[in-house]
Specification:
single chain; alpha+beta; Nuclear Transport Factor 2, Chain: A; globular; 4-stranded antiparallel beta sheet
Length: 86
Amino acid sequence: MDEQVLAILTVSVRQRRVRTGAAVGAVRPVVLRSVHLQFPQVDVVEASAHVLWDGRSQAFAFRLQAWYDRWLCTALELGAQNRSGL
């Protein structure tokens, strides 16, 4: 993950734990419900996912870009709030 995207995700997870009072490791596992992919450019994937997270339905959108022999997450949107400009 791009450093900025990783920081946004880390803060979001920590805030959720504070709001719910969940201890590290006490959060229920994430259940993947569906994934949709688009390919707007060569070496770019925009994906959306519907997950069940902590018993709540959530939407994620992210952008992956080819970077050498790996995929790099360069943008991330969690739920309805835009976190990184996707």
